[in-house]
Specification:
It is a single chain. This protein is mainly beta. The longest helix has 19 residues.
Length: 151
């Protein structure tokens, strides 16, 4: 009989403990929002000419222009092309200017996304000294300065 009492006491304890562990909840809904900021895309491209020209002279052949675009920014940068222009002509023995030279195909395609720290090459434009009918001694020793821009 003692065992029967123990079993009944244990059963009663389970019922009491089980009753204390019933769960209740409220149904509800929720919402929220968040934001993110896009980088301003700091531009930091360096364009360098790699071509070393032979000295120009009347009647010489066009020389190809080549170079490198390096992305020094912390973000990628898409470069569509590089455009070269004659910015000035200095020195020389007299009057010499950009009309003494022909710059052909000045827009050189890259069409590339350059990763941070990466680089891409360009080539295709040419530079030539014109062979004019007049005396061109004024261009002896002149230096042609080129400017590069990308977009």
């Amino acid at each position: 009989m003692r065992n029967k009492k123990k079993i009944m006491v244990a059963a009663a304890a389970v019922v009491v403990i089980g009753a204390g562990s019933a769960f209740a909840y409220w149904s509800t809904t929720g919402s929220g929002s968040g934001t993110g900021t896009t980088s301003a895309g700091a531009s930091n491209l360096a364009i360098a000419q790699t071509t070393v020209f032979d000295a120009f002279y009347p009647g010489d052949s066009a020389q190809t222009i080549s170079g490198t675009v390096t992305n020094n920014a912390t973000n990628s940068a898409y470069v569509n092309n590089v455009t070269v222009s004659i910015s000035s002509v200095t020195g020389g023995a007299g009057s010499c200017d950009a009309t003494d030279y022909t710059l052909a195909s000045p827009v050189m395609a890259i069409g590339s996304d350059i990763v941070a720290g990466g680089s891409s090459t360009f080539t295709g434009a040419t530079l030539k000294f014109n062979n004019k009918a007049s005396n061109q001694d004024g261009c002896k020793g002149a230096t042609v300065h080129l400017a590069y821009a990308s977009n």
